Amino acid sequence: MHAQRQRTDRGEQMWQWFNGGVIALICVVMLYPFWQTVVASFMTEAEYLSSPLKLIVLEPTLAAYKQVFADGTIFVHLRVTFLIAVVGTAVALFVTAYSAYGLSKPFVGSSLVMFLIVMTMFVHAGLIPDYMNYKSLGLINQFAVYILPYMINTFYLIIMRSTFLEFPRELEEAARIDGCNDFRIFFTIVLPLSKPILAAIGLFYAVAFWNTYMQSVFFITDSELKTVQEYLQKLVSDSSDLEGVMATESGEEGFSSETVRLANIVLVLLPIAAVYPFLQRFFVSGIMMGSVKG
């Protein structure tokens, strides 16, 4: 029995080492492109042309970033995307939580309502009906087209509803005895005790809104309302879009068109990359809260 237990422990230890090695390898593969992008953005033109795939910079320079700041075009689109992320996340998180709490309560036809909600995950009208619908509502070339159609994600709604289904009924009953109605219970008791799931879902919403691209392409023609993702896509795919950014001869200034592109990419990635570490601790607890039943 003792020998068998030792073999089992050794096998579990070997599996943990193997599992850890695989995860470490995956992390390296995923992080290398990001690290290489950051490193290359600080290279001079000569160093980048000699070897762009270095892990460290031999002659670091801020020339590419200075050129990006001097041009300033990206910050117009960054401002739009930042507003979309902040306003969209706040609105979507509130509407999703409020709807999920209501759907967690028993009412006549609740099964039918949930069936219709779930069907929206699999049935979609398509791009042309969406455009016609938004046009009839006056949303084309309006900031609201980034927010209103995407206030509720069905998957996140289901997860949050499952969380509220598990909420202790004793707390709600005690609050009602003290004279609280459903609105006060939701705002003063349910929301404060649901911070993990709110943080996790809120981050998912923030990333989705930050990566807004298709809406900018199809529903916005005003250049002042274009998102930074579309600007970045054009900057990366079309060298002519760098004409406004490359105001001087790159060789004389120590940067190239490629390092300017990479500097733009880093500036776009930085905000979300900075937010992740602070909310990562809510991921497991927040998602597990809503994954037990639903």
Automatic annotation (TrEMBL):
Per the record, membrane topology reads: Multi-pass membrane protein
Q: Which PROSITE patterns match?
A: ABC_TM1
All copies of the ABC transmembrane type-1 domain together span 78-278
Question: Where are the membrane-spanning stretches?
Answer: 15-35, 74-95, 107-127, 139-159, 185-210, 262-279
Top-rank taxon, per record: Bacteria
Q: What is its main location?
A: membrane
Tell me which InterPro entries the record gives.
Answer: MetI-like (IPR000515), MetI-like_sf (IPR035906)
What is one process in the GO biological process aspect for this record?
transmembrane transport
Name of the molecule in the record: Carbohydrate ABC transporter permease
Where does this protein come from, organism-wise? Paenibacillus sabuli
The lineage is:
Bacteria, Bacillati, Bacillota, Bacilli, Bacillales
